[in-house]
Amino acid sequence: MTLLKKEYNDVAYISGPLLFVNAAADLAYGAIVEIRDGNGRTRGGQVIEVSEQNAVIQVFEETRGLDLATASVSLVEDVARLGVSKEMIGRRFDGLGRPIDGLPNVVAEKRVSINGQAMNPAARAKPEEFIQTGISTIDVNTSLIRGQKLPIFSGSGLPHNELAAQIARQAKVPGHEGDFAVVFAAMGLTQREVSFFTQEFERTGALARSVLFLNKADDPAVERLLTPRMALTTAEYLAFEHGYHVLVILTDLTNYCEALREIGGAREEIPGRRGFPGYMYTDLASLYERAGVIEGKPGSVTQIPILSMPDDDITHPIPDLTGYITEGQIVVDRALNAKGVNPPINPLPSLSRLQGNGIGKGKTRADHKNVSDQLFAAYANGLELRKLVAITGEDALTETDKLYLRFAEDFEQYFIGQGNADRSIDDSLTVAWGILSKLPQSQLTRIGRDAIDKYYGTKMDEMWRGNRI
């Protein structure tokens, strides 16, 4: 709803991206305003604090050159809103929801608040449906379930952008391919990364079922705070108004949190851990908790937030708080990446707390959970033996120990290191059985006799070796 414009002319001072306006106590928190200076230039902004003395406005554009004497502020909307439409699928937007693909503006079916509405806990349905990403380590060991929020913990220089693009290209809910969509929001991208994502989505055809929000590193920090909310608002609309199963990929949440810290510093807030605002947990929860399934509605919102851990520190406030709110984590490993394993996902520190809800007989395959447990145990054993070999050499190992060492190599090379291949869950389990079959049956203590009789002896033929490329 567009409101009658009232102007506020008493602009007190500017601090970074913040504008302080006196005698504006009737402005509402979250309202969208327009700032106009004497040169006729206009900038957008959002009210982030209101008191009896003044209102604080986050300016969406550069504040340099803004003349306080001639500046005026006028109300545009009572709250930040996004015009949403089913026609957004296949389009690219900037962090504020403006088209950047050279096509006309979307004709909005409705305008909705980007802050969303809290999902009634009593209306939430239990996530129970498997989402296939086509990546064996995720699908078998840390399965993604429809309605889940499952973050990817990465590090600087690791290929999380390539992993994000691969998931966006390959993900599907088996049986619901026609009503599956991806909403992709990237924050703080370099120009090279913008080109990579744009070309990758267009080259692979993934753009046809995707909505892209791309916020660049040289865009204002304030815009970075709105980008994920724009994406989630679009996802909720497609899911709960049009019945889509929507996968939301948010990258990089570290850039988002850095923007949050920058704004907090400009507001002279008392900092918390590592200088981040004390309310960062609440702020992240307001994003992550917008994932879910609602009883009686066919659509769903599933989230994969991606964050690069500063100094690979999983105890850093950003991954630490994310881990509290979300339902597990997928860990991108630097050592695997250095060995050329792609995608370098380490299943040992990775976890999906909802995996048991969406796998097994009638959902994926009856042997799925047991195979996952056996792979985990055998790989952990193989890594322990690697440490032992570094001290004593292989001569001290038994023949069974040497088989576990070989298992760890094959597991990394053929199962984790699948490259750009798109594997169905059956394909992934076939590869798993091919590797497990190199161990004696007596060592498969996590798998039932029926599954061993049916699948043991599966061959690792050239088809799977070539699947890595």
Automatic annotation (TrEMBL):
<protein>
    <recommendedName>
        <fullName>V-type ATP synthase beta chain</fullName>
    </recommendedName>
</protein>
<dbReference type="InterPro" id="IPR004100">
    <property type="entry name" value="ATPase_F1/V1/A1_a/bsu_N"/>
</dbReference>
<comment type="similarity">
    <text>Belongs to the ATPase alpha/beta chains family.</text>
</comment>
<keyword id="KW-0375">Hydrogen ion transport</keyword>
<keyword id="KW-0813">Transport</keyword>
<comment type="function">
    <text>Produces ATP from ADP in the presence of a proton gradient across the membrane. The V-type beta chain is a regulatory subunit.</text>
</comment>
<dbReference type="GO" id="GO:0005524">
    <property type="term" value="F:ATP binding"/>
</dbReference>
<dbReference type="Pfam" id="PF02874">
    <property type="entry name" value="ATP-synt_ab_N"/>
</dbReference>
<dbReference type="Pfam" id="PF00006">
    <property type="entry name" value="ATP-synt_ab"/>
</dbReference>
<dbReference type="InterPro" id="IPR000194">
    <property type="entry name" value="ATPase_F1/V1/A1_a/bsu_nucl-bd"/>
</dbReference>
<dbReference type="InterPro" id="IPR055190">
    <property type="entry name" value="ATP-synt_VA_C"/>
</dbReference>
<dbReference type="GO" id="GO:0042777">
    <property type="term" value="P:proton motive force-driven plasma membrane ATP synthesis"/>
</dbReference>
<feature type="domain" description="ATPase F1/V1/A1 complex alpha/beta subunit nucleotide-binding">
    <location>
        <begin position="134"/>
        <end position="352"/>
    </location>
</feature>
<dbReference type="InterPro" id="IPR020003">
    <property type="entry name" value="ATPase_a/bsu_AS"/>
</dbReference>
<keyword id="KW-0406">Ion transport</keyword>
<feature type="domain" description="ATP synthase A/B type C-terminal">
    <location>
        <begin position="358"/>
        <end position="456"/>
    </location>
</feature>
<keyword id="KW-0066">ATP synthesis</keyword>
<dbReference type="GO" id="GO:0046933">
    <property type="term" value="F:proton-transporting ATP synthase activity, rotational mechanism"/>
</dbReference>
<dbReference type="InterPro" id="IPR022879">
    <property type="entry name" value="V-ATPase_su_B/beta"/>
</dbReference>
<dbReference type="InterPro" id="IPR027417">
    <property type="entry name" value="P-loop_NTPase"/>
</dbReference>
<dbReference type="Pfam" id="PF22919">
    <property type="entry name" value="ATP-synt_VA_C"/>
</dbReference>
<feature type="domain" description="ATPase F1/V1/A1 complex alpha/beta subunit N-terminal">
    <location>
        <begin position="14"/>
        <end position="68"/>
    </location>
</feature>
